[in-house]
Design goal:
By secondary structure, the protein is mostly helical. The chain contains 9 helices and 3 strands, in the order ααβααββααααα. Strands 1-3-2 form a 3-stranded antiparallel β-sheet. A hairpin with a 3-residue loop joins β2 and β3. α6 packs across α8 and α7 packs across α9. The longest helix is centred in the C-terminal third of the chain and has 20 residues. It is globular.
Length: 187
């Protein structure tokens, strides 16, 4: 994965970190299920429908289902596994890459997702700065409200841990940078 990391380090101006591109999710794997779900249903889905399919509980409120579906669909969009379009409601649809992704084994999905996580601006910024020294993920979320920081911090940590869990002996520079990120638990 050092090859991807070198490409990230070469980015002149990484995208600005905003609340719209820092994911919030409950289970990373739920985002990986969305392409297969859309493929099986052969139709676009609303956030609420996705929430029901991904985490059905009889007593769960419609707003909770919608939020669950929305959060995981947005993560899947950041990974380029699905796309979200709006007409009168937000709808999640397949991408060609998402179709290919759902054909992979669970282990392959994790390895591919780790590589795709490099596309997320906050991941890029953390890793670029970690190449030079120790960093704290919370510093990249400073403009956010305290409640947003509290919800998003574990998610950024999860994405970086995912990347770390997919490194190999040859990923010397990436491993060194990940070790400069305080609070990671992948090695």
């Amino acid at each position: 994965m050092d090859d991807i990391y070198h490409a990230v380090l070469a980015i002149d101006e990484p995208e600005l970190v905003t609340t719209s591109n820092v994911p919030q999710f409950s289970k990373l794997e739920a985002a990986f299920q969305i392409p297969g779900l859309l493929n099986a249903l052969q139709d676009v889905q609303t956030f609420e429908a996705l929430g029901i399919y991904l985490d059905y509980e009889m007593d769960k409120k419609a707003t909770a289902n919608k939020k669950y579906g929305e959060n995981h669909a947005k993560l899947a969009t950041l990974l380029d596994l699905v796309e979200i379009s709006s007409s009168h409601t937000m709808q999640v649809s397949e991408t060609c890459f998402g179709n290919l992704f759902c054909m992979l084994s669970d282990d392959e999905k994790m390895r591919v997702a780790a590589r795709l996580a490099f596309r997320i601006p906050v991941v890029q910024r953390v890793l670029i700065d970690a190449a030079s020294g120790e960093v704290c993920i919370a510093d990249y979320l400073k403009p956010f409200s305290e409640s947003t920081k509290k919800r998003r911090l574990p998610n950024v940590r999860s994405l970086l841990n995912l990347i770390g869990s997919c490194t190999g002996e040859a990923d010397v520079k990436l491993i060194a940078s990940l070790r400069n990120v305080r609070g990671l638990q992948w090695d």
